[in-house]
Each structure stands twice: as C-alpha cells, then as structure tokens.
Amino acid sequence: MTENLLEKVVSLCKRRGFIFPGSEIYGGLKGTWDYGPLGAELKFNLKEAWWDYMVKQRENVFGVNASILMNPKVWEASGHVESFTDPLIECKTCNERFRADKPADIKEHENVHIKKKEKVSWTEPKQFNILVEAKLGVVEGEKTTVYLRGEITQGVHVNFKNVVDSMHPKIPFGVAQVGKAFRNEITPRNFIFRSREFEQMEMQTYVKPDEKEAMDMFEFMKDLRMKWYLMLGMNKNKLRFREHAPDERAHYARAAWDIEYETPWGWDEAEGIHHRGDWDLSRHSKFSGQDLSYFDQETKERFIPWVIETSAGAERPLLYFLLDAYAEEGERVVLKLHPKLAPYKAAIFPLLKNKPELVEKARGIYRELKIDFNVVWDDRGNIGKRYYAQDEIGTPACITVDFQTLEDDTVTIRDRDTMKQERISIKDIKSLLHDKQK
Ligand SMILES: [Zn+2]
C-alpha cells in the first residue's frame, strides 16, 4: 500500500472535498491548492490544536497577527533580499539552491550526493528571488515594489518592542503567530508538501543571551513539539529528530534540528527548531535605527535577547496526519484522524428517512449537538453505507436514531475505529463526544 499511498490520499482528498488543485477550472496554477469543505475544517482544527497547545495552555506566551505586506526594508534586514537575488540553480535531488557563480559550492554539494550514490542534476540557472513581488499603490509609475512575506517570522520580530511595551513580559517569553507565507518555489512537489502559498505556525521564544539558557529552552522546545504530534495520535515510529549538519544550517542558525516524518517518498521535514541567536533583533535594530534591547527588571541588565524558534508549516503536518491516518480494512477505507482533527465529530442518522417521527427525533438531537460540536446529518442509503462514507472522512462516531429511541430515549453509537456499536442514553452523548476529544 505504501508505494501508492500518496496517490490514494490525493484521490480521497479530491473525491471527498478535502483538497482541490488551485483554480482548477482554469487549468490550475502550479504550486497552489484549494481547501474544500472538509479540508478547511481539518486545517482549522490543526491550527487550533497548535494554538491551544503552544499558546493557550502555556504561560508567558502571546500571539500576534501581523500583516502579510511589510515594509521592504524588513526583507533587507532579514537577509532575504540579499540571499535570493542571485542567479540560482537548484539541485533536482534535494531542492537545495546554490549560486550558479560559485562552482566550489556546487562541486561540494555534488560530492555529498555522489558519496550517497545518488544522482546529481541541476536546473538551468535563473535570476531568482524566492520572495514573491507585488506592486502597491494606485498611480501607475509610482507604485512601490513590496513582497508577500516569505516567512511569518519577521512579523513577530518587528513587533518585539510593541509586545514588550504593551505586555511587559518577563524573560523568557514566547510570541506565536499563524499565517500565510509565499515563496517562488522552482519545483513545487509532492501534493501540498511544497507549494508556493502556504501557512506557517511559529513560536519565537526570547531568552537571555546565555548559551546554557538558550540550549535548555532549545531542548524544552524540541521535546514539546514532538509531544504535540504524539498527542494528536501520530505513529511514534514514523517520527524522528534529525540534526542539521553545520553546512546545511540557515545563515542565522546556531543550532538546528528537524522533526521528520517517514513519508512514502522517504524521511522528510515536518518542522524545524532553530537557535537564531540575536540575528533577528540585532539586524532589525541596525536597519530600523530602533533600540530593540530588553531591560531585565530582576538583574537590572539590558541586552538583546536570543531567539529559539519552532517553525512548522500547516500543510506538511496536515499531509502527514492524513498519510498516517489512512487505512484500508476489508471493504472500508478509514481515516483514523484524532477526534480533535476530524472535520466532523459525529454523524447523526435517522434509521429511515421516510418515517417523520424518526426524522423529527433525530433532527432534535442533531440541532442540540450542533451547539457544541461540528456534527453532520446524513439520511442517504442504508446505515452500512453511511458508516463507510463517514469512516472515509474520519468521523469518530455515528449516532443512529431508531424506533427504540422513540420509546426509551436511547440511540446506537458506533465507533469509527473499533466498529463496535453500543446503546446509550441521549443525555450521555455530549459527554461521550467530549471524552473522545481528549
Ligand atoms: Zn542536492
């Protein structure tokens, strides 16, 4: 099953309304994807699970929601303009980009693949900027070139002073953001794994400029992030940490680890944990002329904090959760998504749709559950078919209203994973669905 698992998931996503190719009726737009009714719910649930775990459940952590369009100087300060305006070629094996005018770097990279007995081939050199340009302004000829943000990180760092002045946080403290970013990827690939428009979920934690404090926070964050995947039911054996080799680290990184997932195309990145040192704040201090230091009330010291970052996409974990959840069991296809992530928390069925008393009773339960949960109504076909249809989209529970319900206010509740059915009282449905969310 693993060799065509990706195709099966892509096909399920299209068929059942999770993910469609972007602007499909016009022939699509390379590297873009649209989320359908169930995909939009799944993505929302994933981001909410991240925010809840990383922000709401923790202390001394704040959220921001910065603009996608930023002053172009931000990208000079961050190093993005400089690093991405050269003629670049891209390694077709690992998608890493190199300056076409640096033969030594190219040779060195080729040797890495040759040593691993992998083939090396390069794209044609292109004058390349990974930042997506946009023109802002109303008068032709007076428009300013801006960039759609290439990462959400900088929206946090440029607001460092605002957050400190308004919230008076005690160091160490975290600032989180979730939002869209854009990159001119040369080679979008593997469904939603690499696309030109994507969402990121990031936590920037500001710590004292001290190697021990920084590395303690780094280890804490590595552990915290791995636990998040496990909490949401991802298969432990398909997850691992990988440390970046010194030559693959980004320009700012003092230490860098990835959490990786074993995909059908091999181990690949889920997210990164980076020790960014004082790179961001000192660069923004320099380029903006603003003082971005922090005054520690306890020790009476003033310093530029260091940053420990956790940086995940939304799409990669989403894809990995889908791959991880997909199972074929006899006649049925089932998505064993964690109930927190599942688009619908339960489906409500009247046993027969032509019996008004059953339909009315079931509608009442449906309306009552809808106040607390995203539940779905289905009265098409026989019950067995309805179960299978819900299994395929990951609905954890199916509730059937039958003639006995009219007599004793009990329903049949059927579990997606065990397929076991039990009779429970209507008044117990809510607490049962709540328990599944844990
Ligand atoms: Zn390569």
TrEMBL record:
It comes from Yanofskybacteria sp. (strain GW2011_GWA1_39_13). GO terms for molecular function: ATP binding; bis(5'-nucleosyl)-tetraphosphatase (asymmetrical) activity; glycine-tRNA ligase activity. SUPFAM superfamilies: Class II aaRS ABD-related, Class II aaRS and biotin synthetases. One of its GO terms (cellular component) is extracellular exosome. This is glycine--tRNA ligase. Signal peptide: none annotated. Belongs to the class-II aminoacyl-tRNA synthetase family. Residues 7-343 form the Aminoacyl-transfer RNA synthetases class-II family profile domain. The keyword Cytoplasm applies. Keywords: Aminoacyl-tRNA synthetase, ATP-binding, Cytoplasm, Ligase, Nucleotide-binding, Protein biosynthesis. The keyword Cytoplasm applies. PANTHER family: DNA POLYMERASE SUBUNIT GAMMA-2, MITOCHONDRIAL, GLYCYL-TRNA SYNTHETASE/DNA POLYMERASE SUBUNIT GAMMA-2. Its EC number is 6.1.1.14. One of its GO terms (biological process) is diadenosine tetraphosphate biosynthetic process.
